[in-house]
Amino acid sequence: MCQKLNMAFNGIKFDTSVPGMVPWEIVTIYFIVGLAIVFYFARRFGLKSFTTIDLVYIAVGAAFSVVWEFYIGSFIGRFLPSTPFIGVGFWGRMFILLIVAALVRKPGTGILSLLIFNILSDLFFYGFGGEPMYTIYEALTYGLFLDLVIVASRGKLFGIGYKSSNGSSVSTKTVVGLAILEGIIIGILFAIPDPIFYQFQTQSFILASLGP
Q1: What is the pTM of this model?
Q2: What per-residue confidence (pLDDT) applies to 128?
């Protein structure tokens, strides 16, 4: 049985005994296994490490995500009906993340992008209360999910650079089909973290409560 740890750090309550929460052991195992899969298959498939231009894309994308989340998305959101399912700021920065991933197409893009985004967000807007849990949550859910798809595509995310078995280029229809399929998969994966990882694990760990 999970027990509450009587400690606190940086606004984190470390409560592991909230009824209904996903056990922290399961989440930890997922993080370890997920990271291991990404880096193992990245090496096995011979996917290259980041270049300087890759890091520039990631840094610029993360910085623009902050601008979108807190300025552009916030402004646009004022003119849209309030709904828990559509967050202009959030989904806008996720779209920016996908653009960066399509440009770089290397494992670690998602994790590093969200790591930088969270650092900038904390530095200029949120403050560092509750860290590093919020950063770990975003980087190792949304970011890791995206990196797993990059690895699964062998660095040919959204069909970019994809070739047939004989080395020839494939049709535009095939590339579009791959992009749609991978987009659907990423969309499904991105719908998982908030209701499962955050509301029923990370939130209880930080705030000692569950749910919206």
Answers
A1: 0.84
A2: 78
CB 178 within 8 A of CB 159: yes
Question: 121 lies in which domain range?
Answer: 24-203
| Residue 211 domain-assigned (yes or no) | no
Burial class (CB in 10 A: 0-12, 13-18, 19+), 38: buried
Q: Compute the residue count for the chain.
A: 212
Q: Which of the four pLDDT bands, split at 50, 70 and 90, describes residue 189? A: very high
C-alpha torsion angle, residues 105, 28, 14, 89 (rounded to 10): 20
Q: Which two tokens stand for residue 111?
A: 């994790």
Tell me whether residue 142 is in a domain.
yes
User: Does any domain span residue 209?
Assistant: no
**Phi-psi group of 161: left, alpha or beta (phi > 0 → left; psi -120 to 50 → alpha; rest → beta):** left
Identify whether the C-beta of residue 104 lies closer than 8 Å to the C-beta of residue 54: yes
Residue bearing tokens 């027990």: 3
